[in-house]
Design brief:
Strand order of the largest sheet: 1-3-2
Oligomer: single chain
Helix content: 55-70%
Distance between the termini: 52 Å
Number of strands: 3
Structural class: mainly alpha
Number of helices: 7
Amino acid sequence: MTSSTSRAREGVRGDLFDPQCPTRRLLDRIGTKWTSMAVKVLAEAAPDEVRFAELQRRMTGISQKMLSATLQGLTRDGLVGRRVEPTVPPRVYYRLTPLGLSLEGPLAAVRAWAEEHMAEIDRANTRADRPDAERAAGE
């Protein structure tokens, strides 16, 4: 029997419920708010490129270190292409690859769901965070 990693390399679909399946690691990477934001910004610019500083400006709240780590992971996964102009300082440009563009649709659906249901989630969290006596009285 082949391992999940070997099957993934061979192009065979992974099994999320197999603890050794690389699908789990991929979901950890693509399921972050920063990945979703970066993909959205790059998709809006497609097929054009976006400079690092512009990405950071558009992704309010992200640190330079976190943006760099996010882009490195997306580049390593083949979702983002990177181009460096040898100037001083270097100009670094990013764009979505065709594989990265194929991820925008599913992430857009998740973002839309989150935006639509955030108030409900907040209410559920508020109820869950109340002390037991208050919770019992309010239900």
